[in-house]
Design brief:
It is elongated and about 80 Å long. The protein is built from nine helices and 17 strands. It is α/β, with parallel strands linked by helices. The longest helix has 26 residues. The strands form five sheets. A six-stranded mixed sheet has the order 1-2-6-3-7-16, sandwiched between helices. Strand 4 and strand 5 form a beta hairpin. The chain binds zinc ion (ZN). The site of zinc ion has 5 residues, from helix 3.
């Protein structure tokens, strides 16, 4: 059977596992582990804290630093309220396209990796080939964060990581981070006519928002020289502001939902440090003068690290050579790539299919995209 037919066969199996992020991915991971073990890979599974999900990390060849890592997330977004022309969890080929939930985001890439594994097994020599299939990417990259902790503990750093998110096989070397938070303010209720007897959470939340807006302006001026991001600076958005109950009641609770999309990790630190200072040195001491139990808590909804374009990037060199690309681009969507970069790897995002088809009804992967991917993965063997 040729490698494309084998990839389609594996992809059809992967699509049949309904690995929506709210559900278990263990059956899919066990299936992938079986295929990798068959060709001699050393496979490690790590259970999620809740016990219903798992990461897979597998190695062909010697266990040493500097290997090549092919990585993908095993979870998919839900099909709820979407009108599909066919069963989303039964892969169907129509007009040169493979339809099904996850075909392009991103089980097509995983299937191609699994189909190539037996070939890599005969090629590995001085440099190991690793496979990482993670859980819960779609809801905050939790699986990859967990994998990063495990790799660190093991002291293993692959040299190059290729994240096969759908880029139509374009080589992507950067994207902004996406950090989301809810900040909660707890004050003291009281009558509107006696402001000194209460602590108005809404007023403190507004001062916090004012600081966020000032930081937003300062970040514009901090755009790195030559930044190719659009816009080139770190953005801040205050998405929701809630609090209080009525005109004449001092508000005891308020909440600010906000996000930032940092172009560098240091920008994110800058914002968080400024906010912490504001709370610890100004807002909280004032609130606690009247009400010692007053609190401001920062709830992290998700912190997906950005992928910073680097001058030196072996992953970019390899993939540019294999795809024939002239350079590498940036994208607007977030991936697990920044988590691997933070571990010291050279990382690019490059995979089959288009992000335009991801997350939608009738998600599909064009067969010519799959062919391009397989060509590149076949050529990748020469770097082992
Ligand atoms: Zn994805």
């Amino acid at each position: 059977m040729d490698v494309r037919a084998r990839t389609c066969e594996i992809l059809s199996d992967l699509i049949a596992f309904p690995t929506v992020s709210s559900e278990s991915n263990q059956a899919l991971i066990a299936y992938a582990a079986g295929l990798l073990e068959e060709c001699g890979a050393k496979v490690d599974l790590a259970s999620s804290p809740c016990g219903t999900k798992a990461n897979l990390f597998a190695t062909l060849g010697p266990e040493m630093d500097g290997g090549i890592l092919l990585s993908g997330h095993s979870d998919v977004v839900p099909v709820t309220d979407q009108e599909w022309s066919s069963d989303p969890f039964v892969m169907e080929e129509r007009d040169g396209r493979l339809y099904g939930r996850g075909t392009c985001d991103m089980k097509g890439f995983i299937a191609a990796c699994l189909a190539m594994a037996p070939t890599y097994a005969t090629q590995v020599n001085a440099r190991p080939m690793h496979f990482a299939f993670t859980y819960d990417e779609e809801i905050g990259c939790f699986g990859a964060q967990h994998l990063a902790v495990d790799l660190k503990a093991r002291g293993l750093t692959p040299g190059v990581a290729i994240i096969g998110e759908p880029t139509e096989m374009r080589v992507i070397e950067g994207h902004k981070g996406c950090y989301e938070y809810s900040t909660h303010f707890h004050g003291l209720e009281g009558h509107g006519s006696a402001p000194d007897l209460g602590v108005n959470a809404v007023e403190y939340a507004v001062r916090y928002v004012a600081e966020l807006l000032q930081l937003k302006q300062r970040l514009r001026a901090m755009a790195p020289a030559g930044s190719r991001f659009d816009p080139p600076w770190t953005t801040v958005n205050v998405g929701a502001l809630q609090g209080g109950v009525a005109h004449n009641v001092i508000a005891s609770k308020a909440q600010v939902d906000w996000e930032m999309r940092p172009v560098t990790a240091s920008d994110a630190d800058f914002v968080k440090t400024a906010l912490r200072q504001l709370c610890d040195e100004e807002l909280l001491p004032q609130m606690r003068q009247t009400y010692p139990q007053a609190e401001i808590t920062l709830e992290t909804i998700g912190e997906v690290a950005g992928l910073e374009p680097m001058d030196q990037n072996e992953a970019r060199q390899i993939m540019a050579e294999l795809t024939g690309a002239n350079g590498a681009d940036l994208v607007a969507f977030g991936t697990e790539a920044g988590i691997f970069q933070a571990l010291g790897m050279d990382v690019v995002v490059c995979g089959p299919g288009s992000i335009a088809q991801a997350h939608k009804a009738d998600e599909y992967l064009a067969l010519d995209q799959l062919d391009q991917c397989l060509t590149v993965l076949q050529r990748l063997g020469r770097y082992l």
